[in-house]
Amino acid sequence: MTNANLYAHLRANFPADLNAVAVETDSGLHYTWSDLERASAMLANLLVSLQLPAGARIAVQVEKSVEAMMLYLATLRAGYVFLPLNTAYQSAEIEYFITNAEPAVVVCSSKNFGWVSKIAFTCGTQNVFTLNDDRTGSLLERAVHCLDQHRCASSQDDDLAAILYTSGTTGRSKGAMLSHGNMRSNAQMLKDYWGWQRGDVLIHALPIFHVHGLFVAIHGALINGSKMIWLNRFEPKAVIAQMPRATVFMGVPTLYVRMLAEPTLNKAVASKMRLFIAGSAPLLKETFEAWRSATGHTILERYGMSETVMLTSNPYSADPRYANQSERRAATVGFPLPGVSLRVCDEDGKALAVNEIGGIQVKGANVFAGYWRMPEKTQEEFTADGYFKTGDVGKIDERGYVHIVGRSKDLIISGGYNVYPAEIEGYINDLAGVAESALVGVPHPDFGEVGVALVIAKSGAALQPETIITALKSRLANFKIPKRCIVVPELPRNTMGKVQKNLLREKYQTLFAKS
Ligand code: MCA
Ligand code: AMP
Fold first, then answer.
1. CA of 170 relative to ligand 2 center, distance in Å
2. What integer pLDDT is reported at residue 168 of this predicted model?
3. Closest ligand 2 atom to the C-alpha of 211?
4. Which residues pair with 414 in a beta bridge?
5. Which of 42, 285, 406, 505 could cross-link to 330 by cystine, CB 3.0-4.6 Å?
6. For the chain, which domains are there?
7. pLDDT for the residue 2
């Protein structure tokens, strides 16, 4: 029987010439395929030498680097479970993840070692290493003494490969458990659907602690044996400058908006590019059209989730399942990907007809097994016939294209990062002088959507919006900080006393409108 381990599958697709360049960084470093293979073997051997229990979690909060990617590959090949954490998370957030996931190994930046190791050791983690984006840190110092050959662990499709925390509507994050089979099947299918070709070169400019940068982009390149041009940070000018040497780019809509503001973006600079892919948040029709007129390329928008990896995509070329449709349509997320069953249902679970709006439900080999140690929550999110309720609201049109028109979950997507109002409101409500608060998402020209906090003061308390923002900054990841805080005398409520967020969204709709 073949090994279902995702790394084994990626490795089988490396090019024959292992001395070819696999990753080229913006600081001028070149890593060959052999370097990826050998360095990830050393890191895998280091993990194995720690004699961790089966299913051990390796929690990683480090700046983006090729070595961080190697650690991910090492975790896969050693058969452990990768748990990536956004570098913006602060101590209370990290404490929750570590307490909840009980990782056997924590890897952090040297600058955070003091507070992260304190949390980790208190929670019972035995091993805390450091890894920095300049190839320093105790992890590499230890790995350098390990053998550079490693026999990939033998895995089954259902074996856990990664846990991705995604915030919950009640404010508590849930760990989505993804298996080797979930990710392998999705990567293999996307390789075909997006027409990956020998000679493709991917510009990798996304963070690597979420599905988009870590799985869709990295798996896409590795499973095709394609080189990556690796940028540790997204800089619009730098990405545009790399376009003549590349063929594929993936980004959240904000990255496209920022590149469109650059005078160096034009048809000539993008002429060698084969494919621009967008996702993680809605791509405005305006951005889709502006990109087409600036570069001559039509962005391919797709839709996915941490729980499911990729679900739908606009076509790369004609999709025979949908009357040979090859058009990439603005404001749609395309067709359900091969192997994904997608339906739109009403609140009673009845499947709806074409163009009727309802909850999007999905099923397929890509759909996760459930939330880490939350069996009840998992059960709630699945239907009796095994469909996962995405929490996204949409419709399927007469041509088969899926449209996302809203969300039933109270979620703000800001620059591709998710912000759950309940979590932020909880922090605001704990501040002195606050009686109540509501966070709503409003349109924003750069981030697509941002949070605005409406706060009611306790009687007699004099609240300053700046004080609230400062207090939040010391507790929460920067992308969760409301972009505006407004002290209000009251909040609109329905007859049940529930705050009517739709009215607030309407009222503050144009707060950040372009003049
Ligand atoms: C930074 N800030 C943000 C965000 N990022 N605020 C709201 N939303 C954000 N996304 C804050 C900063 O802390 C700073 O605050 C101020 O906004 C300006 O920061 P700036 O320097 O402009 O930010 P940046 O460092 O350039 O980052 C912007 C970014 C970044 C490059 C767009 O947010 C990013 O890389 N986003 C991509 C996220 C992603 O990969 N998502 C995929 C999730 P202050 O001035 O107060 O310090 S995976 C997913 O969704 C799935 C499943 C899927 O379908 O793909
Ligand atoms: P995450 O927590 O990162 O898993 O976020 C997944 C959510 O991002 C989905 O449930 C959607 O609400 C949203 N999303 C992803 N891609 C798109 C897209 N192309 N258009 C609209 N929303 C999207």
1. 18
2. 63
3. 3
4. 417
5. 285
6. 331-409 (2.30.38.10), 411-508 (3.30.300.30)
7. 87
